[in-house]
Backbone:
């Protein structure tokens, strides 16, 4: 077994090339999107003929689009909060107690993640009709939350598994009733998972189309609005929206990394 | 003194066949340092967790200071625990950890902090109050865990293998410190350990457990000098076993015959003549007899192996009948090394009758 220096050089070069291609595959489209959002031409040509902020100006004058953005924030915020409110206790129950049908319970909670959005959408539409609810943003929130609960339970449950049982026992030992223990010991220690799950839920809900399509009434969310304007082709205005979303995501990621950094290395 | 903890016929059955603790009754006096000793799986930790309230017994009653607490949750029991992994809250400082239980008691922030400072001084860590547990060493964490558990002055302090996570040198030091702490605070300590040396050096009383039951309960010296069973004899210290049978009684004690020779033992068992018994004696309670020297029990043998371990020698001696026993002898000075026995040499072992244990029945030694 003798390794010539050249063979490792070839391997290194191949790996570097592969990584560069992968990065290009992932990120070039986003750079293209950002570049075109500043293009002075309406048609998508490269190189862009000139620089302009017109599309951003138009975007902020577009009342329909701004309403859609507001709706999306409303839906994503409350769908995530609902998913957290149901998902955290469910994860605690799965972690803490052994009860009859526990496995079934876990599968049933995780199932909506794997169900196609179309199925969730149609079935929930039928159900809401049956109970006499009109489709609205609120029904969208409920629709989104069903799938997001699974996301929250998975993440929080995994974190709870890593949390030593003795921490909660020590709290109880020192006189803390269960709720006090949950608020002062459990929650602070699973904070990063709760935050991550909430963020992921928010993003998933924000760009969700199939379920929203079935469950919304006259109100549009941002992805729905974009989708509907796409019939007239990709406009630079849409590119500008996309760029702003990329920017917002970037800020969210940075904030989440900063907040979820576990200060105590375990 | 009154019993602070009374365990009355406590059992913990996990299923019909899996039994963690089997009909244990135990009283612990106020201010005592009691150790539950046994190998893993003997039920000692389960028993401790039941006293703490983390598990409920399936049968029996637990009383704390005269009150039935069998089904009282941990947060309403005046008992605190030092956990094996210390269970310090990682998101709180040392001071916050210690003050945690005090704030729940409704003490003011300032008062809780003062008490935390005092508790830290008591365990010898006065300058760490504002650090996070992750910044501390293992020994320091263990002191914080101790401080957090005693700061509320519980009626009983429970210690679950408190020294097992420390390295050997630190463990020796903490043993002494914990014993001193016990004397200083005057709280009842109940400790669980599988380390017999820890149990012997620290406690007033040791409860040896075997398969969910109490094998023997007594002062360290008593357990060492008068083990109630071969199990205890071998769990605490080392014991040589020789199979024999009871042949009679004389004023000097019980007479026992074995393939290795005849023995006289001071111990008297209510057994009929001819009963099968097991003899036991400790390696350090046997002398290698010099020429012309004699003893109450003299057993001939042949040296099989000699191991040097600094403080002395451990020799393995083969007796008539094939039983091998260990004999420890100290080397008082370097001159004695010239007299070191060599493998193959014939020797005579001298054992005093009060150093011979007699157990009913035969054990596979």
Residues:
């Amino acid at each position: 077994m003798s390794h010539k220096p050249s063979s490792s050089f070839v391997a290194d070069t191949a790996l570097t090339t592969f990584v560069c291609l992968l990065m290009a595959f992932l990120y070039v489209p986003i750079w293209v999107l950002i570049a075109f959002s500043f293009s002075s031409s309406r048609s998508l040509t490269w190189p862009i003929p000139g620089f302009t902020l017109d599309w951003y100006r138009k975007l902020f004058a577009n009342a329909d689009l701004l309403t859609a953005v507001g709706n999306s924030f409303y839906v994503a915020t409350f769908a995530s909060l609902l998913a957290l409110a149901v998902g955290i206790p469910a994860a605690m129950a799965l972690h803490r107690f052994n009860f009859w049908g526990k496995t079934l319970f876990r599968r049933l909670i995780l199932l909506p993640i794997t169900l196609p959005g179309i199925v969730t959408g149609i079935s929930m539409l039928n159900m809401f009709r049956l109970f006499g609810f009109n489709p609205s943003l609120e029904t969208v929130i409920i629709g989104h939350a069903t799938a997001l609960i699974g996301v929250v339970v998975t993440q929080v449950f995994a974190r709870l598994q890593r949390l030593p049982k003795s921490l909660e026992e020590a709290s109880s030992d020192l006189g803390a009733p269960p709720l006090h223990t949950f608020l002062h010991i459990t929650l602070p220690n699973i904070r990063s998972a709760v935050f991550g799950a909430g963020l992921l839920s928010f993003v998933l809900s924000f760009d969700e189309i199939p379920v929203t399509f079935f469950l919304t009434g006259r109100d549009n969310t941002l992805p729905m609005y974009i989708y509907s304007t796409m019939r007239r082709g990709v406009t630079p205005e849409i590119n500008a929206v996309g760029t702003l979303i990329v920017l917002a995501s970037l800020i969210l990621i940075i904030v989440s990394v900063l907040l979820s950094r576990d200060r105590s290395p375990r | 003194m009154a019993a602070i903890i009374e365990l009355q016929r406590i059992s913990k059955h996990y299923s019909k066949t899996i039994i963690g603790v089997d009909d244990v009754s135990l009283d612990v006096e106020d201010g005592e340092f009691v150790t539950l000793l046994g190998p893993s799986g003997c039920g000692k930790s389960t028993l401790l967790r039941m006293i703490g309230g983390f598990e409920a017994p399936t049968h029996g009653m637990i009383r704390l200071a005269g009150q039935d607490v069998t089904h009282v949750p941990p947060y309403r029991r005046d008992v605190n625990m030092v956990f094996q992994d210390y269970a310090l809250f990682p998101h709180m400082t040392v001071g916050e950890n210690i003050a945690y239980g005090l704030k729940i008691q409704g003490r003011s922030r300032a008062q809780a902090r003062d008490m935390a400072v005092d508790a830290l001084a008591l365990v010898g860590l006065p300058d760490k109050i504002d650090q996070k547990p992750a910044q501390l060493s293992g020994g320091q964490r263990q002191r914080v865990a101790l401080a957090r558990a005693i700061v509320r002055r519980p009626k009983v302090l429970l210690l679950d293998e408190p020294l097992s996570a420390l390295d050997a040198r630190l463990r020796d030091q903490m043993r002494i410190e914990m014993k001193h702490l016990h004397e200083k605070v005057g709280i009842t300590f109940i400790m669980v350990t599988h380390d017999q040396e820890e149990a012997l050096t620290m406690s007033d009383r040791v409860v040896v457990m075997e398969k969910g039951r109490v094998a023997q309960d007594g002062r360290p010296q008593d357990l060492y000098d008068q083990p109630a069973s071969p199990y205890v004899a071998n769990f605490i210290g080392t014991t040589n076993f020789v199979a024999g049978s009871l042949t009679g009684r004389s004023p000097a004690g019980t007479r026992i015959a074995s393939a290795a020779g005849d023995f006289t033992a001071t111990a008297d068992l209510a057994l009929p003549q001819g009963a099968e018994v097991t003899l036991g004696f400790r390696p350090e309670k046997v002398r290698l007899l010099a020429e012309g020297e004699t003893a109450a029990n003299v057993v001939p043998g042949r040296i099989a192996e000699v191991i040097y371990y600094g403080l002395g020698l451990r020799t393995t001696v083969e007796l008539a009948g094939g039983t091998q026993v260990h004999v420890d002898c100290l080397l008082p000075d370097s001159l004695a090394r010239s007299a070191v026995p060599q493998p193959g040499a014939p020797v005579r072992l001298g054992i005093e009758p009060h150093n011979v244990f007699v157990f009913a029945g035969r054990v596979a030694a």
Notes: Chain B touches chain A through 28 residues (CB under 8 Å).
